[in-house]
UniProtKB/TrEMBL annotation:
Residues 56-83 are annotated as: Disordered. It comes from the Bacteria. The chain crosses the membrane at residues 27-46. Residues 69-83 have a biased composition (Low complexity). This is Ribosome associated membrane protein RAMP4. Keywords: Membrane, Transmembrane, Transmembrane helix.
Length: 83
């Protein structure tokens, strides 16, 4: 069921739609220019992002501490001397 406020709001929108001239409202040349500029900006951003992503090296390099840590784990650790 519709409430009184939604019915009132709907009647206001219907009256606005009747006074709306459909022949005068078009995106026109300005709308096309704005759309084309946004499309060009997105294309340039995607091109730049692709260039930056090609620079990224995804292969992980082992750190110096990790390479020595695996070899020392195989040998028993010596306990510190206490005097």
């Amino acid at each position: 069921m519709m409430s009184a406020t939604s019915t009132l709001a709907l009647t206001h929108f219907v009256t606005l739609a009747d006074t709306f001239d459909k022949d005068k409202v078009t995106p026109g040349v300005l709308g096309f220019i704005v759309f084309a500029v946004i499309g060009g900006a997105v294309w340039l951003l995607m091109k730049s992002m692709n260039k930056q992503m090609k620079k990224v090296d995804f292969e992980e390099q082992p750190e110096d501490g990790e390479a020595g840590g695996t070899a020392s784990a195989a040998t028993p650790a010596t306990e510190p001397k206490t005097s």
